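Hi everyone,

Forwarding the result from last night's run.
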Amino acid sequence: MSYRITSKKQYIEYCQTNKISGYSSLKEEELKYIVELHRKIMRKHVEHLPSWYKLPEISFNKFIFCLKELYDIYNDDAAQLLNPIDKSALKYIHGYSDEEIQNALKISHLMRLSAMKRGILHQRIMGMFPGYKDLGTGHQSKCDIADESETMVAEIKSAGNTMNSSSKASVTNNLKKAIKQGLNAYCVIIQWDKTEEVDKHGITWICGKRFYKKLSGRSSFLNDLYYTIGECFMRYNTFDELLTSLEIA
């Protein structure tokens, strides 16, 4: 979209076209910031990739934009409240200080927030591989990614314990429908204690490391992804610091 964007409707259309999910409920000024940030990052030509970037299969610019939501989560400093009974038990029975209790609450809060975003992050990254696409939200298949020819679809879950029985039933039903249409169907569980198995419906359940190997051709991709994200967080504590280092801010 190269023309000037001037309305909330156009901002939302831009987000949909560029698979930028989770922003449709924002106010117009907030949407405008997200769209302008995305366009600025996409226009930036990075002649020499940083030495810590280990994902040559993935567009560096798109990867950087993907990190914004993670940085937003991990820089959330909102105070967390604990009911008085739990606080008394932790303080007097277990001997935790007020500071230790607050730090533990913050960690728990961040982990809950990040759990909701990790699956989305992997969905976006998998959709960046050549020959594959992120289906965003609301696709008729109700799946997360597909190959360009749409002979394969996949649902992405960050961990097995993020699926309760109803969630697993929903995923299974969506993938069974895909199989009936002649498609190959995968449920990718990023952190899974198994590697790969095909169930009675023909659905392939597969761990993140092995699925990333299918996409990238190398078994080290997931480890390199974790390394790259870790290097970003180590070098740049905020998203603004990262953008400044790349002369994007």
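The longest strand covers residues 152-159.

Cheers,
N.
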